[in-house]
Amino acid sequence: MSDPVVPSATPAPLPTALRAPESRTAQLLLASRLPARMAWVDRDGRPQVAPMWFEWDGAELLLSTFAGSRKLDDLADGSQLAVTIDTSEFPYRSVKMSGPITVEPSDGLTDSYRRAARRYLGEQAGSAWCDALTGQVQVLIRLRPTRASVSDMSSMPFITEPTGDR
Amino acid sequence: MSDPVVPSATPAPLPTALRAPESRTAQLLLASRLPARMAWVDRDGRPQVAPMWFEWDGAELLLSTFAGSRKLDDLADGSQLAVTIDTSEFPYRSVKMSGPITVEPSDGLTDSYRRAARRYLGEQAGSAWCDALTGQVQVLIRLRPTRASVSDMSSMPFITEPTGDR
After folding, report:
1. Which domains does chain B show, CATH number per domain?
2. Rounded to an integer, what distance in angstroms lies between the CA atom of residue B138 and that of residue A159?
């Protein structure tokens, strides 16, 4: 295992929006193949944003990045991240979360990344993708959300009145 | 017109990735119905991210938000924004840009928002959407990119070798 479980002494409770049982909207988004769009603050105090594969383990959002990537110039234990996982088509659904991270080195691809690759690309293509990255070293980012919100526009009255042009 | 054109005295040249003629990838993304995922830094120095409808006018990214929205507690002329406009499915394509903004009040919905609503939802539904927002007041955010990059994974050799499981 390249992703050791680091138990937190007294884990803070999850924000209501992510507490089990999650809403159907949160469940769908967190199990989806949508990339997370991850925002952080760089060393000059400027915003940065990037799409990232993710994995939700029920308590933390796991994101893997390659050792030496520019993100890691900006991120360390305790850095704040904000993430949106949201659909690109109407009716828009989103889950947003933010909080502090921990950063864990690994000695190759992280197990979380290997699982994510299979989820996003399918079993065979995901494995082939990881095989093509043999020798690369990753870092695991664990985001423990302290704030979260869920939005689902499918409940808006607007779309129960189709106008016929879509 | 609720979006007055404010000429910039000496506009800086656009980053290469966005200079006309834009790459085919940049053109497709900037004309697409994909939401921009917009990142900024809040007043506590923490990252924030939200999906936003956008419009690209060839030099600036136009984003509209509602007067009184929490974003506007954090944003003012000169604030930095970072945006990614990227596809949710493999092969991933993205355009990222960042730079300073100007913030312009308007006296209702912005013209840019009305055009964006029709692009994202279609002519009829977009107009109906805006009609339902009659009386709301928006603010126009103009992002003038000083950095930009384009990525297109469809050129990766990986996907020319289908594995048959997608």
Report:
1. 16-104+140-150 (2.30.110.10)
2. 22
